[in-house]
Every structure is written in C-alpha cells, then in structure tokens.
Amino acid sequence: MSAALLEVQDVSKSFPGAQALRGVSFELLPGEVHALMGENGAGKSTLMHIICGVYTPDGGTIRINGRPVTLTSPRQAQNMGIGMVFQELSLVQGLSIAENVFVNRVPTRIGGSIRWGELYKRTQALMQQFGIDVDVRTPVSKLNITTRQVIEIVKALSLDARILLLDEPTSALPPNEVEILFQTIQRLKARGIGIVYISHRIPEVMEIADRVTILRDGQRVATEAISSITPDDLIEMMVGRKLTDLYPERAQDTGTELLRVEGLSRDKAFRDISFTLRAGEIIGIAGLMGARRSELLRALVGVDKAQSGSITVQGRSIQIHSPQQAFESGIAYLPAERKTDGLFLKMALTQNISVTALRLFSRWGLMNPRAEAAASKQFVERMGIRTPSVQQLVGRLSGGNQQKVMLSKWLVRQPKILLIDEPTKGVDVSAKVEIHALLRELVRQGAGIVFISSELPEVIGLADRILVMYEGRLVGEVPAAAASEQQLMLMASGYVASGEK
C-alpha cells in the first residue's frame, strides 16, 4: 500500500457549547477517492475546514506525506498541496475562465500589465489535461454548471494540489452531467491525486469512491472499502439505526381535482403544458438541466408571467399575475434555493414561520409575539424540527431543519396545492426520510403536491405520477410504480416517448 498523502490522527475540535469532533482519524492515499459521509452536524465540514486551514484543531496530529504539519491558514494549506472546492462555487461570473483560474496570480510584465498571451496559454494547457475544449477567454457567466464545477477543480490544481477536497460536487448537476465530472475525477486518480469526496448521494459514492469514512455525532464510526459494504450498511452507519422506509407507501385513492393547467406557454421557456393534479396525489416532474421545470413552477405562482394558456384551481379559472394571487388561491411554492429565495437566515425561526400569514399573528397592525411563538412551537413538534429554541436564527439550523421551516411557513396558510422545487436538496438521509413522510402525510390530509427533483430515485419513490419535460415541453407521463431510471433518462433526453420501453 502506498504511503498516505494525508493522515489525520485523533483530531478534536470544540466550539462554545458544542463538541464538533472527538478523536477523529482519517487517511487519504495517492490516487484514491475517499468518501466522507454523515448526517448534517456529524462533523464533516469541521474536519474539512481543519484540513484546509480554516480551523485549528484543539488536539491531534495532521501529517502530509508523512510529515507532521500545523495548518494555520488556507494559504498555508494551499502551499502544502491541499485544494478545496466548496459546494457554493466561488468563480467570478464577469471574469473569463483564465482570469478565474489564475485569480490573484496572473502573469505580468514589469510595470504590472498582464501578459494575456501567457495567461491564456497556461490556462489552455490545464484545460486540455481534462479534455475540456473551450475558449479560455469565455466569461464564466456563459458556462453551464458542470463546466464551472470542473473549472473550480482546475483552479485548485493550478496551485499544484495533490490533495483535493470536493464538497457536494454534484449537488447542482443534472444526472446526465454527473458522468462528466466523474470522468474528470478518474483522470485525477490516474495522476495520483487523492480526493476527499463529501456527498449525501449514496449511489454516487458507491460508484466513484474506493473507501468511505462515516462520521456520526463528531466521531468516526467506520472506515470501509466500498466493495465490502452495501447502501443499506451506509445508511445504518450514518443514522445509527435501520431505515426501512426511505419512501412512504403511495396513496391508494385520490380525491377531487385541485389544479388544471391547459396549454400554458411562456416565451421560449416552455410551451403547451397541460396536466391535472388531484387531492391526495403527488406528481413528480423529471427532466434534465434546460428542461425548464423550475420556470414552469415559477409561472404557476406568478413569479414569471405565462403568455398563454389557462390555470384552474378547485374548479375556478384564475389569472395569476403575482405570488400573492397564487397564495390567496391556496397555492404554496417552495423554491430550490432555500438560503437565498426561501428563508430569512438572519431572522428567528418564529419570524420565518409567521411571515406568510402575518394577519394571523397581528392585531391593529401590531405583531403578537406570543401567538407567533405558540404557532412555531406547534410546527417544531409537528415537523420534527431540531432546534434549541423557536428564537434560534434559521441560518444556524441544519439543511434538513431549514427545509422543514420553509415547509412550515406555508402550512400556516393551510394550502391545498404545494409546488416544491427540490424538496430534499442538500439534506442528509435521515432528514430525507422525514420530509418524504411529511409530504405523504399532507396528501393523505387532502393536499396535492407537484415537485421537481434532480434525483431520479426520489422522483420514482415519492411520486404517484411522473411528468417528463424536455426542452420546455412535456414529452410523457409515467405511473411512478412502473417507471425506471433508464426510461425516464431516455425520455428526458428526447429519445423515448412515454409509451415506449
């Protein structure tokens, strides 16, 4: 076995009121993809921040190439060959690929002028190593998300990184483009680069990783070869118990029609969209990036305006020109980006829950804090939100708990129709199970749900019916119980109609 590129031995780290890591050990070999998994709050991010020099451990030892080191800053970690690609990409949209890759390090002449020819040549050489054929003068804003992710990796490797930390690298990628990233990772492995791969997506880890280390409650539970374990083993180690029902049982019967969409079109985004939603039903919308699924939901709630077509809610034809009209008609909308579009991170849980129904918690224009707190406590209990207090800032909650808060703020209004974009994006396995159960319980109570997910297993497992979109059109409908990932992928790529196998 090759000598380890990175060794972490008995590392501990505490913050005021919390022990984040307790004697954690971790090892990365040359040419290895070592997955790091665990629920939100398990300590993954803290460990990565220690390795890349953001945090200083309270105790323990870190070795790089067998030599003990003390990492006191990200710059020092970079100088020692450690590159970090965070989940939130850090590229500057207005700059070119080359300027982003060599940001703060562009080659210059005496006097400070940039040597553009050399900058482009050096960047092009790096890009060619990964089989990327793109003009390095292209602004990053014009690139798709997969190419941006690869450029983040190229940027880290331009610093001669031998250790690469990837934090949820596929969270924003459509399924068909994950393989492009995996091909890049295989090239890195062949060059002897070690990769720490953080992900909640178990199928990806099973495909790309060589070994996996599981953290739970700040401690290492196990380190195993991927070839020796099953997905069920991973889930049990992460949550500390067996999870037998990742997806709840489907509804047997549906009720009255809640929503009818006929011939809905908007500019070049989507056209001639028609479907119905009934009480007690969950519809999943599958599609690749560019299918315009999110644009459809935004038009249904008036964030964007449809040019033609009709919307009927509970038998009444309505014109939706604003989100307020949609909300008053009984339609709730949960956007994909909860941190930027769905929540007020610097406000308390109580304020986030009450924000959609201020009239319920006010009198003569004055808010009633007691009523807010009482309602929030009810939702904390009902939704299983883990928080030390209803006054906790939402930005300090885990991703799964933030998602439950965003759902709670709409349930205050008791909507009959919920439109949800990526219901479990960035949440851990245990939180996924809880959110799936919550959504199924809502439809049992008479609601109807339309959701988008980039994870095909979630679309198949959670939905009753699946609509497939391709380039702004509905290309088919499939009963979820009869659907397969292969069939949905072919339909979403424009190759197979719903009736073909």
Label the structural class.
Answer: alpha/beta
Q: What is the count of structural domains?
A: 3
CATH hierarchy, class of the largest domain = Alpha Beta
Say how many strands there are: 22
Could you explain the architecture of this structure?
- This protein is an alpha/beta fold.
- The chain has 3 domains: 6-239, P-loop containing nucleotide triphosphate hydrolases (Rossmann fold, 3-Layer(aba) Sandwich), CATH 3.40.50.300; 245-330 and 415-501, Rossmann fold, CATH 3.40.50; 344-412, no CATH class.
- Helices cover 32% and strands 25% of the residues.
- It has helices spanning 44-51, 74-79, 97-101, 116-128, 145-157, 175-190, 202-208, 231-239, 293-300, 323-328, 338-342, 349-354, 369-383, 399-411, 429-444, 456-462, 485-492, and strands at residues 6-15, 18-28, 33-37, 59-64, 67-69, 82-85, 163-167, 194-198, 211-216, 219-225, 257-266, 270-278, 282-286, 308-313, 316-318, 331-334, 362-363, 366-367, 417-421, 448-452, 465-470, 473-479.
- A hairpin with a 2-residue loop joins strand 21 (465-470) and strand 22.
